[in-house]
Amino acid sequence: MSSDIIFGKESIVTALNKAVNDVNNLVKGMNKDAFEFAPQGKWNAGQQLDHLIRSMKPLNLAYALPVFILRWRFGKANRPSKTYSGLVEKYESKLIGGGRATGQFIPKAVAYDEKDKLIAIYEKEKRRLVKKVSKYNEANLDKYILPHPLLGKLTLREMLYFTIYHNIHHQNLIIKYAGADLT
Predict the structure, then answer these.
(1) How far apart are the first and last CA of the chain?
(2) Per CATH, which fold does 9-178 belong to?
(3) For residues 32 and 113, what is the distance between their CA atoms, to the nearest angstrom?
(4) Roughly what angle, to the nearest 10 degrees, separates helices 45-64 and 115-134?
(5) Model pTM?
């Protein structure tokens, strides 16, 4: 998903499945040393996974709400959805500017014996989100918005783009810090 177009729901669901599966498979293959290692001040692989779970759970709550509640609580979009690459560019610029996770999105300490449990939780959260997204029509993905703690108001489609890229971003951090590899 690196093009400068608006991706349809089916492409988004495919990319979301792949992104989460890639993270889970990466973590699944890690030994204790790789899983628990992180440079000073950085998150280990378990914490990266915990952060991704913490980021997806509120989405599952939001996508379960009827659209009239979304409109009442968060409003409607006053602009077209950004493209995938436009959303990625905005997120990367926020990170370069010092943006970081805060509050409920900061992971707890995670030990190796929690690995399988976290992988199962993340798979379950992904399945729940995919099921909910599949029930949305294309127009509503661009019509309604949700608040993002770093990026501000995002359309439902943009929030899914973010979720896909967020997985890729943290997968890359796991590889960088733990020396893990997908091969």
Answers:
(1) 21
(2) Four Helix Bundle (Hemerythrin (Met), subunit A) (1.20.120)
(3) 9
(4) 30
(5) 0.92
DSSP 152: E
- Give per-residue pLDDT as tens, 130-160: 999 999 999 999 999 999 999 999 999 999 9
Output the CA–CA distances (angstroms, integers) from residue 36 to 2, 22, 43, 115, 117, in the order listed: 31, 19, 9, 10, 15
Q: Report d(CA 26, CA 13) in Å as an integer.
A: 20
Categorize the per-residue pLDDT at 102 as very low, low, confident or very high, splitting at 50, 70 and 90. confident
Distance, CA of 146 to CA of 154 (rounded, Å): 5
Instruction: Name which of 139, 114, 129, 143 is nearest 35 in CA terms.
Output: 114
> Mean pLDDT in the chain?
92
Give me the residue spans of the domains in the chain.
9-178
CA atoms of 141 and 150, how far apart (whole Å): 20
Cβ pair 136, 156 in contact under 8 A: yes
User: Would the CA dihedral through 68, 69, 75, 80 be positive or negative?
Assistant: negative
